[in-house]
Amino acid sequence: MDAQHDHAVGAGSPILHLRCPREVDPELYRLLLGLVADVTPVVQALPPSAAVADVSGSVRFFDRDPAELARMIRARALALFGLPVAIGVGPNRTVAAMASREPGRGGVRAVGSSSEAVAAFLHPRPVGELHGIGSAQERTLTKFGVHTIGLLANLPEATVQRVLGGKAGRQLRERARGVDRRRVVPAELPHSAAAQLRFPADTLAPELVRSALLSLAVELGERLRTRRQAAQAVTMTVTFADRTQIHRSRQLPGGPSAHTDDLRYVAYEMYRALGLQRARVRAVALRCEQLVDAAAACEQLSFDADREHRLRAEQAIDALNARFGSGTVGPAASYLQAG
Q1: The pLDDT value given to residue 96
Q2: Which residues of the chain are modeled with pLDDT < 50?
Q3: pTM recorded for the entire structure
Q4: Residue-level pLDDT at 325
């Protein structure tokens, strides 16, 4: 790819990347999305606390440049909601996201759309700061002496692909050169969340099915808590060896919840009610539906000491998984291959 084409792709629509404080109230987050939508309809939520917006159509309408639009949005968020939003402005999502990490005292950091401005912003930085790079990729690059984004940008594409793999290497090298082909796709917080598990072989063992349901409840619970959402209902799908399926749905008895304990209980009850005897099960799936803001989910007082212990353990598990990666810690019974 030649430099002119790189510049043409990199200098696309002006993008704003907005970052709220990490522990932002879900309702304030939704209000911020609405505030940004008043400026541009091209807004994509990145729950639980970020968003991206394409303001190419708003520059002419408001007669303001992208940085001025960012400052206007930030001022309104502070005045209306008391919400300090960090905003990065750039010619694509990568540059804007990196700029929002260090917006300065004014809360807004703008990077020009010229290839020179993008290179001056990106190239001196440590390669680990490149948006989208993983820790393993960073270690691999630094092992080969690639310590800055500029060094990565100037490596031959074939070399980067050999080191990092074809697609991943090409994508990271493009981002290091200020090229990001992703568009902003208008999207709100999802209204459902699903997960499924297919057994290596059709099973008659109810304990394996229950273990799979627990694993799905753990995955969905963690996902909902990360999004700051709660489910009002759960649908279970059981697929049999002959490919027929049974669907069952049930409201969560205690109201909206994102707790693994509540999702597990409903899943177990639906499976128990099926009364399966000698049916060979091929796969199971759970879907959390009628999602609402977690702030709308009222926590009921519980006099069940065991449940309270499990909820406290859930908080510790979430903290460990957030630090070391999803699935690092979980209930022993959810690991089907455990010895």
Answers
A1: 97
A2: 1-10, 301, 337-339
A3: 0.60
A4: 61
**Cα separations in angstroms, 108 against 89, 123, 163:** 8, 20, 36
Task: For residue 215, give both structure tokens.
Answer: 């694993």
- What's the pLDDT score for residue 307? 64
d(CA 230, CA 136): 33
Strands 86-90 and 108-110: parallel
Q: How many residues can be counted in the chain?
A: 339
What is the tens place of the pLDDT at every residue in 150-173? Answer: 999 999 999 999 999 888 899 999
* Residue 293 to residue 250: CA distance in whole angstroms: 19
Backbone CA torsion sign across 319, 26, 252, 213: negative
**C-alpha span between 157 and 274 (Å, rounded):** 55
CA 202 to chain CA mean position, Å: 33
Give CA–CA dist 143/132, Å, rounded: 19
